[in-house]
Amino acid sequence: MIFHKQQLGMEALPRDVVLDILSRLPITSLVQFKYVCKGWRALVQDPLIANLQLATKPHDANNNPCLILHCDFPIRNQLYFIDFFSHKDDEKDKVRKFHMPFQAKMPEFDVVGSCNGLLALSDSLYNDALYIYNPFTRDYIELPKSLQYPDQEVVFGFGFHPVTKQYKVIKIVYYRKSYSSSNYHQRARRIIYPRSDVQVYTLGSPAWRSLGKLSYQFVRRPSEALVNGRLHWVTRPRRYSPARRIVSFDLADEQFREVPKPDCGGLNRCNYHLAVLKGCLSAAVYGNYGKLEIWVMKEYNKNESWIKEFNIGAYIPKGLKQNLDRPFKIWKNPSNGRVVRVLCLLYNGQILLEYKSRVLVSYDPKSGKFKDLMFQSLPNWFQTIVHQGSFNWIDTPLDI
Fold first, then answer.
1. Strands across the sheet with 256-259, in order?
2. What top-level branch of life does the organism fall under (predicted)?
């Protein structure tokens, strides 16, 4: 009876007002509304909802995070979701597991991109299968197969351009031509020289296209920042070109371009990564013993607009101090990789951080205090993807 009265109230309002209200609700509330009645289900599945979600909250991932956790330990890959906006007191209900309808076909996978409520997943064993997936609607498609090379290493990117209204997947393949001689053991085969092939797939098209070779060697991880319709990567230092560069790929004209980097000297160091804060391209530069500087490009592609906005001191979460006789040795071994990763800014101005793929921490720049975020049912090891929860799908006519 209560739902019946609420439905009458909803019907009394203009449809555009109702859709605007619904678009401002957390994605978990919209999922629940689908099961109230047929009328509400039809409302939340209106394609305009996705448009409004993405248009009214363009930087939702920076202040109202929808966190997807990818866990590939110990055996089976899983995706989890942290509901930050759940009003339940029981913390165990804030971590939920997604059940992917295609996982039997691709049990081992990597999350290689997130854009407008959609995830791009790749086969981590063979780099062959690729899926686009909305975890909240469970809609998915498998992309056509692309050209494969022997001994290949792949760097991915996935994004949407607001002018062309097209989604594209970028697959940068680095491969090696090698030979083996009877005079050498197979393990000692030589690498003659690396080659590359840039492959692009526009969602909705019949096949992949090759753009040819790429002169840059990127760090072997997916694009970390989509800003102004451009995907961004960090280059690897080379023998005769040790300086690291920021390189973008324009999803409209499909050209690679260098982007000015902050004048801090730290971008030639071995550890730094990109992020998006308040819609701006940002660089997190590592200092000694886990200290971190966050530089933000306030006006895109203008070198003078880089500003050092945050200084974050060294911190070791409680969960990482366990089983460590000398906790700070974790900072001294460069083989440990990135100890801390900047995820996003929260609505309260705090910075969300991930430590060693094991602990989530919020940092308050005003007080300089850290807080470990504890959730029941949180996997022991995970990679955090800052996601914008939406009912968006590929055939939705986006107008953002």
1. 225-227, 230-234, 246-250, 256-259
2. Eukaryota
Q: Is the separation of the CB atoms in 135 and 119 below 8 Å?
A: yes
The whole-angstrom separation of Cα 323 and Cα 71 is: 22
Q: Would you place residue 191 in the very low, low, confident or very high pLDDT band (cuts 50, 70, 90)?
A: very low
Instruction: Give CA–CA dist 11/75, Å, rounded.
Output: 49
Q: Please give the Cα distance from 275 to 338 (Å, whole number).
A: 14
Which of 330, 375, 371, 380 is CA-nearest to residue 351?
371
pLDDT tier for residue 54 given thresholds of 50, 70 and 90: low
Report the Cα–Cα distance between both ends of the chain, in Å, rounded. 38
- Can you give the pLDDT at residue 184? 39
The set of residues, in sequence order, having a beta carbon less than 8 Å from that of 168 and lying 6+ positions away, is 158, 159, 160, 161, 200, 201, 202, 203, 251
pLDDT of residue 300: 96
Strand partners, 170: 157, 200
**Beta strands 166-179 and 190-202, pairing class:** antiparallel
Q: Dihedral (C-alpha) 239, 243, 244, 249: value to the nearest 10 degrees?
A: -90
Query: How many CB atoms within 10 Å of residue 111?
Result: 24
Answer for the pair 274, 262: CB distance below 8 angstroms, yes or no: no
Residue with tokens 């020289």: 193
| Residue 118 in tokens | 């959609």
Q: Map tokens 């801090």 to a residue.
A: 264
Render 93-137 in DSSP notation, one character per residue.
Answer: GGEEEE--TTTTT-SSEEEEEEETTEEEEEETTTS--EEEE-TTT
Alpha helix (H) ranges present in 45-100? Answer: 47-56, 60-63
Residues whose CB falls within 8 Å of the CB of residue 123, separated by 6 or more in sequence, listed in order: 106, 108, 109, 129, 130
Task: Check: CB of residue 77 under 8 Å from CB of residue 107.
Answer: yes
pTM: 0.84
Please give the helix or strand (H or E) that residue 23 lies within, else none.
helix 15-23
